[in-house]
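hey
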């Protein structure tokens, strides 16, 4: 196994950032169309980039890095298209990337002709590794190259009359760069640009490759800010890649350390394991009560559109956006979510806001609906089944029936060895408990008040039992007990009605009645039955027939 060179952690004698609380959002810059696009196996077409740009503006990004115009003809044309077709909203500033080389800078300015506002983002690698092994330059030569580039950009910007050009400088591989050197080159860049009052140079301090744990990125940022000569004339920007999978944490900590701005991409597209995911980061801040200026109100539609544009799949477990991240399969989680949602008003007033077991945010804030949170497979339990039946069909099952039915669902899911849809759960429910045909068949039932005592009900039931027709008469306190007394005359071996409940399917005025009964036969064996209809008595009678047809030997 290889041994790996570890970047030196720096000494921070009076580290402050762990005690800071995030209270406001950074300025955001989306680099999807540059860092994200350059890392796609199939880079986007011009039409796809235009749509992506529009999406970013709809979300609320005010700074968008749109490409590397001097390095790619496509990016050059895209920049021209945005400017010439007037596609840049007035409150949005585009940014274009260039290396610190003369011909590339000149070409970049050609792409910007006619722009109202732009950020010229120039970068040069400042780590020993890059300077020596990639470019064969000394630290002094690299510094000189950066300053020459800044002066050239300044003079080119002055020629672009009518355009407001700001400068961004990135010491690439900042997190692997000697701190004294990074400070020196960045201060010198700000001084060479010499921003007018009210303007700041963006110093973008990238974790080009994530080689350190997140706390060390924060240490570097706090130290850099504390030691800068030109703090007041600079905006400190973060740009974290995700090689160790910690880019979101690293960025949050580095914001605590005092950074002002964040670059990243939606869903974390970008080189290797990607850039920091701005969607996750922004929604984390939103969860913490921070107004981010970014809106993710239809996150599933956004995710699907991004998948279409980039041809990059999104993990079903991706925070906030993944298909399964607001879904519970396991019985105990489903039960807790179901209970928490049922009493969410009460818990919100106790805890001062949304607090639901296993759901850290309200999925409705992202345009996701409750109905699909709970999905059924062989791990699921009664809470999940109750939720699906209630949410999708408006049916609330009595506890004993729910217990019986959850065993049936588990058997069904085990046999299917896959997820079970809510339509399948409903079908199974009806097939299991609604049995109008069997040993007993109801032809007709007429309940009417007794002429002498209208509180008593006379029932006349026309049934078939074991294929033979019967006309039965009986009296009861109500239509249901009259029917029970009638069918007790049949050669069914005796039974008693143990539980009876009325409900409804659906929540509208036209909701159908659903009744549920539990009978036990002479040996004490239970059977459950359901009946439907617009008339509650007829639904109840059907439920009794269904239950009788469910008793052993009655099929
Ligand atoms: O990751 C990086 O360092 C970059 C720079 C060009 C900012 O993308
Ligand atoms: Zn990058």
């Amino acid at each position: 196994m290889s041994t790996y060179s570890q970047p030196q952690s720096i000494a921070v004698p009076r580290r402050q950032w762990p005690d800071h609380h995030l209270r406001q959002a950074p300025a955001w810059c989306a680099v999807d169309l540059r860092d994200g696009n350059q890392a796609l196996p199939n880079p986007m077409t011009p039409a796809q980039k235009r749509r992506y740009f529009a999406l970013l503006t709809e979300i609320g990004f005010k700074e968008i890095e749109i490409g590397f115009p001097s390095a790619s003809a496509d990016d050059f044309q895209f920049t021209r298209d945005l400017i010439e077709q007037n596609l840049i909203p007035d409150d949005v500033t585009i940014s274009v990337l260039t290396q610190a080389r003369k011909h590339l800078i000149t070409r970049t300015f050609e792409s910007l002709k006619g722009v109202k506002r732009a950020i010229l983002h120039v970068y040069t690698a400042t780590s020993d590794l890059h300077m020596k092994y990639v470019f064969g330059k000394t630290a002094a030569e690299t510094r000189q190259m950066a300053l020459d580039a800044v002066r050239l950009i300044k003079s080119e910007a002055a020629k672009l009359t009518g355009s407001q050009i700001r400068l961004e400088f990135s010491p690439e591989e900042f997190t692997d760069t000697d701190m004294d050197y990074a400070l020196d080159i960045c201060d010198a860049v700000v001084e060479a640009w010499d921003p007018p009052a009210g303007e700041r140079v963006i110093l973008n301090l990238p974790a080009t490759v994530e080689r350190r744990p997140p706390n060390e990125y924060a240490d570097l940022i706090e130290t850099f800010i504390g030691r800068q000569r030109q703090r007041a004339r600079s905006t400190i920007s973060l740009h974290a890649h995700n090689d160790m999978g910690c880019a979101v944490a690293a960025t949050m900590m580095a914001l605590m350390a005092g950074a002002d701005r964040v670059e990243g991409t939606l869903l974390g597209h970008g080189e290797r394991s990607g850039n920091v995911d701005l969607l996750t980061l922004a929604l984390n801040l939103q969860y913490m009560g921070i107004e981010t200026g970014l809106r993710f109100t239809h996150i599933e539609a956004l995710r699907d559109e991004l998948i279409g544009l980039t041809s990059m799949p999104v993990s079903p477990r991706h925070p906030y956006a993944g298909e399964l991240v607001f879904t519970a399969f396991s019985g105990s989680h489903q039960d807790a979510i179901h209970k928490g949602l049922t009493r969410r008003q009460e818990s919100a007033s106790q805890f001062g806001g949304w607090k639901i077991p296993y759901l850290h945010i309200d999925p409705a804030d992202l345009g996701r609906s409750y109905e699909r949170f709970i999905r059924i497979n062989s791990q699921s339990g009664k809470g999940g089944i109750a939720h699906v039946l209630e949410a999708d069909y408006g049916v609330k099952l009595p506890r004993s029936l729910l217990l019986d039915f959850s065993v049936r669902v588990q058997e069904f899911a085990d046999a299917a060895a896959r997820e079970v849809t809510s339509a399948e759960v409903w079908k199974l429910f009806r097939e299991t408990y609604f049995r109008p045909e069997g040993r007993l068949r109801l032809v007709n039932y007429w309940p009417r008040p007794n002429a002498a005592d209208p509180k008593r009900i006379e029932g006349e039931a026309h049934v078939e039992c074991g294929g033979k027709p019967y006309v039965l008469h009986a009296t009861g306190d109500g239509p249901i007990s009259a029917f029970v007394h009638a069918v007790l005359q049949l050669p069914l071996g005796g039974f008693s009605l143990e539980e009876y409940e009325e409900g409804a399917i659906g929540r509208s005025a036209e909701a159908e009645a659903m009744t549920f009964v539990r009978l036990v036969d002479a040996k004490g064996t239970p059977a459950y039955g359901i009946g439907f209809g617009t008339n509650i008595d007829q639904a109840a009678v059907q439920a009794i027939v269904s239950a009788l047809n469910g008793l052993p030997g009655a099929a």
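The chain has a mean pLDDT of 94. Residues 35, 206, 208, 239, 241, 275 surround zinc ion (ligand 2) (CB under 6 Å).
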